[in-house]
Specification:
Elements: H1 4-10, H2 15-37, E1 46-50, E2 56-58, H3 59-74, E3 78-83, E4 90-91, E5 98-106, E6 117-125, H4 134-137, E7 146-152, E8 156-161, E9 167-172, E10 177-182, E11 193-195, H5 206-216, E12 228-229, H6 235-245, E13 248-251, E14 264-265, H7 266-279, E15 283-285, E16 302-303, E17 305-308, H8 310-323
Parallel strand pairs: 3-5, 11-12, 11-13
Antiparallel strand pairs: 1-2, 3-4, 5-6, 6-7, 7-8, 8-9, 9-10, 13-17, 14-16, 15-17
This protein binds 1,6-di-O-phosphono-alpha-D-fructofuranose (AFP).
Family: Belongs to the FBPase class 1 family.
Keywords: Carbohydrate metabolism, Cytoplasm, Hydrolase, Magnesium, Metal-binding
Main location: cytoplasm
């Protein structure tokens, strides 16, 4: 049995980062407990409030956010945090060594139907300046020192990279420990499975419409093979499937809100998932640019996402490049 802390030590991860990851793990164990209590704990349903993105907050969005925030701020390791559920950054300990951004409960519309949800996090090393503000977070995803998620499904898993491949840990609910269950994740460069919300097809840009049209033509079309489709409506679960058995995931730009480059958030969703996908041998792009190279302009910014099997992401980029 290999415990999270021992695996991280063997990988040469420094003690401060190990402590921070353990703190995230503890908060997620508590989120896991609340989720599994469901209606018994009165945690299902929505609050009266909207978050800064204009989305109605579920009770568990708020509970998960508060659990993470409180534990991280108490740890003394965090100089500041940014959350999808907070309007502004929250300043922690000025001597804290890290900045952390998170989506406390991704896919929260799945809560009320008892389907998969997850917590996604992205960690940067803080500099030793005495000033910390939103601009401290505006770093490209390539500078993340760790990224991961906890997915709450039939089993609860912590999926993590510290820049040395991707590992999966399963929460042993009896021991209360995350135990290593997958040592190294590899995504096949080819796939015959895609994940996209097809109901939006008429709103997408032409290259994405053409790409999906060609997939749907199957073995009689230009791709010469049949494709299967899956959509969980929680990025964390769709990305988890890709890390387990391959595939392509996209939430592309859509003309209904042309001012927004996409639905998903760069700092809380796209960057951490892009680091995991690249560390597992896949690729993550907007269709025209590597996600991890994007220079963020604000913490809540959104981005178009195409990620997963390297050759399939390359195929999508070809459709975009022919359009130009
Ligand atoms: P919520 O956390 O608000 O439910 O949103 C989840 C999400 O941002 C992402 O995890 C999904 O991939 C995507 O939205 C699902 O969007 P659709 O509503 O278009 O299915």
């Amino acid at each position: 049995m290999q415990f999270l802390v021992n695996v991280l030590r063997q990988d040469g991860v420094d003690n401060a980062l190990i402590s921070l990851l353990q703190t995230v793990g503890v908060a997620c164990k508590e989120i896991n407990f609340r989720l599994h209590q469901g209606a018994l704990a009165g945690v299902l349903g929505s609050t009266e409030d909207e978050n800064v993105q204009g989305e109605v907050q579920k009770k568990l969005d708020v509970i998960s956010n508060d659990l993470l925030k409180d534990l991280l701020l108490q740890s003394g390791l965090v100089k500041a945090l940014a959350s999808e559920e907070e309007d502004d950054i929250v300043v922690g300990d000025i001597d804290g060594q890290f900045l952390i951004a998170f989506d406390p409960l991704d896919g929260s519309s799945n809560i009320d139907i008892n389907a998969m949800v997850g917590t996604i996090f992205s960690i940067y090393r803080a500099n030793d300046s005495l000033v910390v503000d939103e601009s401290s977070f505006l770093q490209p995803g390539s500078l993340q020192v760790a990224a991961g998620y906890v997915v709450y499904g039939p089993a609860t898993l912590l999926v993590l990279t510290t820049g040395n491949g991707v590992k999966m840990f399963t929460l042993d609910q009896t021991l209360g420990e995350y135990l290593l269950t997958v040592k190294k994740v590899n995504i096949d460069p080819d796939t015959q499975e895609f994940a996209i919300n097809m109901s939006n097809q008429r709103h997408w840009a032409k290259p994405m419409q053409d790409y999906i049209d060609d997939l749907l033509k199957g073995s009689e079309g230009p791709r010469g093979k049949n494709f299967n489709m899956r959509w969980v409506a929680a990025m964390v679960a769709d990305v988890h499937r890709i890390l387990c058995r391959g595939g392509l995931f996209s939430y592309p730009w859509d003309r209904r809100a042309p001012e927004k480059p996409g639905k998903l958030r760069l700092m809380y969703e796209a960057n951490p998932m892009a680091m995991l996908i690249e560390q597992a041998g896949g690729r993550a792009s907007t269709g025209t640019q590597r996600i991890l190279d994007i220079q963020p302009e604000q913490i809540h910014q959104r981005v178009a996402v195409v990620l997963g099997a390297a050759n399939e992401v390359g195929a999508v980029e070809q459709y975009y490049s022919h359009q130009r």
